[in-house]
Amino acid sequence: MARKADYKRFEALGIQNLAASANLTFSQQTFAESLKLPLPVLSDFPERKVMRSYGVLNEKTMTANRSFFLIDPQGILRKKWIIENGPTTVVYSSTLLNDIEQIIGKR
Questions:
Q1: What digits encode the pLDDT tens for the residues 18-52?
Q2: 32 Cβ partners below 8 Å, 6+ apart?
Q3: Which domains does the chain have, with CATH numbers?
Q4: Containing H/E element for 94?
Q5: Are the C-beta atoms of residues 41 and 29 closer than 8 Å to each other?
Q6: 8 A C-beta contact, residue 97 and residue 68
Q7: What is the pTM of this model?
Q8: Are β-strands 67-71 and 63-64 bridged in parallel, bridged antiparallel, or unpaired?
Q9: Sign (positive or negative) of CA dihedral 55, 61, 62, 66
């Protein structure tokens, strides 16, 4: 998980990382603990309201398309990254960090 390795780089930019999925809260907690994740892992089960509202819910599988969102402190969505072939695509932190730095004006 690239975000785990680069967590401090995101923090230095004032970025709070959150993870979410449609799994049960217990599953999320077990997953987070097994990987020693430094970020909160949230459950959108069972209604999947957040995934629907962000347009990333795959209604066939009832799972989210792999995606990343940059939301500013006022709650405004500044950027959305939707990953095609999510399970097989590696998303490097540097890609996200470069975009974030450009958007927030820190270079």
A1: 999 999 999 999 999 999 999 999 999 999 999 99
A2: 19, 40, 41
A3: 2-104 (3.40.30.10)
A4: helix 93-104
A5: yes
A6: no
A7: 0.85
A8: unpaired
A9: negative
